[in-house]
């Protein structure tokens, strides 16, 4: 009897010990999850087998990433896209109503999907374009990174690498974009590009320190994601928390994106192939096979990517291009021009095209391109409600206009608007031309990759601060190199993230002239004289990436130093910017002087000569002149349409 009692008592003790071990184990799991997951979801993440809220509605900026998942956490895995049949979604996150620099509103959804083998995938869906992205990995990593992003922002460092890529959600679309059952290949493994598409001149100056390898990149979003520490202060947040800052897309990566875009077009084939389409295809073949016989003695080869292709393309445009301009639209938003100020480029282009008899046709059936004649500046002046901090009515206005065109005509639907184009110079234009208008060829002054600018489709329109509509070329020219004692010059309002740091580091340097806003002088003489007397002119971004200083530098024969991450310089399709400009990442501002002093005098003189050679491409004339800004803008639109045309 005693033996039986002792046996039972021993079993009870062992059972109690096992229970304590289970309790402690469960507590340890809870403790680990407490630090890895947002606090309000520890239990739900552990216990729920169905869909639960990730962490409710939480706002964080998208910065134009309509087709890419932002960089989060220290995630370094390489991911591939797989179908996930019969899977259970276990976590859900919705992001909505973020108003960034461009005022875009997007609704984006993330789902964590549990596969049968136990692995978890993140599924990303954008309501704007229906695109989706599935990344293998662990939702726990994603969730931990989101919960710790505030600490990351305080240290102002970019997180580790995460590879993302765009996957069309429409069946069959993978084939047209170069994807079959697998994702787009890394750029290093792409099929060889025709030698005629390669730059004719090796890039000269491109400063990209602390680079990390490029993995795969979305075809249309043009976003580079890499590990890169930054000393820059965070940008405006409009009172909302930000995701960790993505690494900038460097000028060399932009070159790769351009080659890829023109070599692997995923544009929508026309519903019906027109005579104009066949003419464009013929033009493409002729441009690709251009040779030295197409050279022009008036053009300087080193400033072009391929002078023979440019010359052949320009001549074909001059000979055959036909543009139809929609008559619809009420003034002043449509068919009205502002010809002075920093938004003048859109007004000059509209005015000159509407009065043009060479390229404009009244017969839409013979048109190669369709022009939407609106002014983003006049749209803002007419409709924006002061201090409302909302541009929704502007965006809706343009969407309604396009819907009207679609209902009234068949031209848009034939190509999904891919043969339509516009020219807009206001900072808000990327937001105003979202939605259906994203398929258009957009000539934008605010050519920012991270607000949706697509290299190889969209055109970077020069920002020209026209002082006098009657004399837009006043004071052009500058001192010879020997009479330029100032190493570098900048003056302007201290807005944005880059300029205050520029002033802090170099405002007192005796070899430079780095100022806040200069005192007003009639005709802006002091500003102009500084530009004419400086070797290098600093073109630092403000709130937006574009600045009239880029064109002003060229006007006054001062080598531009572009400090504006993710800014695509004007006419990027044809100009070899690295032959006449210096590109410096914003994080490298503290090293600015060393970078400039490291450029040999011989190289500086080559760049200065390049600046003088491209001047003619940035002039507005009351009556258009060959190779001027009007013709170059139209040519870049034409060129991108030719190389994106897909008749398959």
Automatic annotation (TrEMBL):
Is Metal-binding tagged as a keyword? no
Q: List the PANTHER family hit by this protein, alphabetically.
A: EXOSTOSIN HEPARAN SULFATE GLYCOSYLTRANSFERASE -RELATED, GLYCOSYLTRANSFERASE PLANT-LIKE PROTEIN
Q: Cite the Exostosin GT47 domain residue spans from the record.
A: 319-597
UniProt-annotated location(s)? Golgi apparatus membrane
TM segment ranges? 18-35
What membrane topology does this protein have?
Single-pass type II membrane protein
GO CC list: Golgi membrane
What is a GO molecular function of this protein? glycosyltransferase activity
Q: Does the keyword Glycosyltransferase apply?
A: yes
Q: Where is this region: Disordered?
A: 148-179
Q: What's in the keyword line of the UniProt record?
A: Glycosyltransferase, Golgi apparatus, Membrane, Signal-anchor, Transferase, Transmembrane, Transmembrane helix
The protein, known as: Exostosin GT47 domain-containing protein
Task: Provide the species name.
Answer: Fraxinus pennsylvanica
Q: Which InterPro entries match?
A: Exostosin, Exostosin_GT47
Query: Pfam family example for this protein?
Result: Exostosin_GT47
Q: Which family does it belong to?
A: Belongs to the glycosyltransferase 47 family.
Bias type Polar residues, positions: 157-179
Report the principal subcellular site.
Answer: Golgi
